[in-house]
Amino acid sequence: MHRGRVVFGAMDEVVFGRPASEALVAQLDRLGTRRAFLMVSGTLNRETDVIDTIRRALGPRCVGTFDAMPPHTPRSAVIAASEQARAADTDLIVTIGGGSITDGAKAVQLCLANDIRSADDIDRIKAGRGGSPQLAAPAVRQISVPTTIAGGEFSSTAGVTNEKTKVKEALRHPLLMPRAVLLDPWLSAHTPEWLWLSTGIRAVDHCVEGICSREAHPYGDAQALKGLSMLAQALPRVKADAKDLDARMDCQIGTWLSTGPLASGVPMGASHGIGYVLGAEFGVPHGYTSCVMLPSVMRWNKSANAERQALVAAAMGRPNDDAGDLLDRFIRGLGMPRSLREVGVGPEQFDRIAQQAMATTWVPRNPRRIEGPAQVREILDMAA
Length: 384
Fold this sequence. Notes:
This protein is of the alpha/beta class.
């Protein structure tokens, strides 16, 4: 008998296939908000006219722009954005960019609601082993226009890096989930190929680890299997033709579906857990962490979940293939890195990574049980 609990998040709607400038105006009208604060990609703001077009569309309802969020969402940048948003007296945060910006805005919401004014103050709002502290609920909410496809805009969790400890820490509250997500394939054409494709593998990782979990259930499976099928077909099409808007739209919708397991209570596994350490400690981009870890995690796990791995291969259109080998070839075919060495991480660092990975949320819930750092080290050696 299946057992579980599906919690439907605080998102009102997802709008897809409309230009962001047009869809954002409609959202502000729907919500009755008058003071939108933009948190945006610095590249888009400084090197294209995309953000100017959106500012013009919003007119006086745009009250400020923050465009200096580094990768992995460091605490100091969260505080800088919070102070700017507080000074602007915003009633809505709009993000236009990748996952670090999306997570940054989620963190800003909690900072505004809980009077967080310094990097050290973030200790008061971070989640711990026992869950999240008692927090004032965000009054200023968020709308997200993602330009990458890792999928963080569909969750109520933010990852923020503590620069002192080099650890990515979680902030959680049900209202951190954006009120709306706007999927604009035209806007995504500005995203560099490596970033689009690698974050696409991050979305693949969400699907795969959700399908392969010990705690998988039919609701999550339905979304992850369809999302994986869409991504497996659409990512190579974008690689072949960057102007294929239909393929970009399929990538975006596949990414939306990829978050189904996690959003419905299915845990991720060692690929995500090790990836958090690689990102926070070594600055490896989110997508690249999945590119280098997922096939090795699948191979290490196969003795525990071969039947579930067969579902992955079937969803990718190759039902007779080994899922780990299939993912390896797929990632290589997109031109993405496939080893830790290629992202600047060497064996001399593996023991430290293994120790830190045991403290993450997901490694202890990997489908093949991981009892200690030595087993994490086995996976790292496979990915070397």
